[in-house]
Design brief:
By secondary structure, the chain is α+β, with helices and mostly antiparallel strands. The chain contains 7 helices and 8 strands, in the order αββααββααββββαα. The strands form 3 sheets. It has a 4-stranded mixed sheet with strand order 3-4-5-6. Strands 1-2 form a two-stranded antiparallel ribbon.
Length: 204
């Protein structure tokens, strides 16, 4: 009889514990109609450094280079080339800003800047550009890259890892590093001071 007491107690304990389990439900209960939930939003906040780190990306407008102010927080060369490759935004396009590059363009840095020269790799669409459009495309890259903070003084180009001569007005091919002065007379932005010193003009 004494052996039955522990068994009875154990059964009673199991019964009590079973009664404490949480019941599940098979249907969802709707939230009260008057409950207001805050909308889910995703906000992209530029790093604080964006406020002070700026660069000019050169597109085209009315046959001349046109600087567009952009922001960066990492390597300015890579960022500038990415902006060039992407082309003008819809808002910029509505303002008459264009690009000679075929967007999206794969224009990348081919290595670190050495002796003041940046080496830029272009894509096949770039090399297929005709005449003046190709001159404009070269000019866009040259002005953008040499205008970077602590940027190089000249730019050399390559395609598929091989040297590519730069086309400068009026249809001249140069194997040396090219500079903004090679494009001043034809594509200089209005009021671009370095070109004024070289050509004595202010751009139109």
């Amino acid at each position: 009889m004494r052996r039955l007491v522990p068994l009875v107690c154990a059964l009673a304990l199991v019964s009590v514990l079973s009664g404490c389990t949480v019941a599940t439900q098979n249907t969802a209960t709707p939230l009260p109609a008057n409950l207001k939930l805050a909308p889910t939003t995703t906000t992209t906040t530029p790093p604080a450094s964006h406020a002070t780190h700026q660069l000019n990306v050169y597109f085209m407008k009315e046959g001349r280079l046109f600087p567009v102010l952009e922001y960066y927080s990492s390597d300015p060369l890579d960022v500038a080339l990415a902006y060039l490759g992407a082309g003008p935004s819809a808002t910029q396009t509505s303002r008459g800003i264009t690009t000679a590059l075929i967007s999206p363009a794969a224009i990348t840095s081919a290595g670190p800047i050495k002796n003041g020269v940046a080496l830029i790799e272009v894509d096949s669409e770039f090399t297929s550009l005709p005449g003046e459009a190709l001159e404009e495309a070269f000019a866009q890259i040259v002005f953008t890259v040499t205008g970077l903070p602590n940027g190089p003084s000249s730019v050399k180009f390559q395609y598929l890892g091989y040297p590519l001569d730069a086309l400068v007005p009026p249809g001249q091919l140069l194997s040396r590093g090219v500079t903004p002065s090679d494009y001043c007379a034809t594509f200089a932005p209005a009021g671009y001071i370095p070109c004024q010193k070289i050509t004595g003009t202010v751009g139109t």
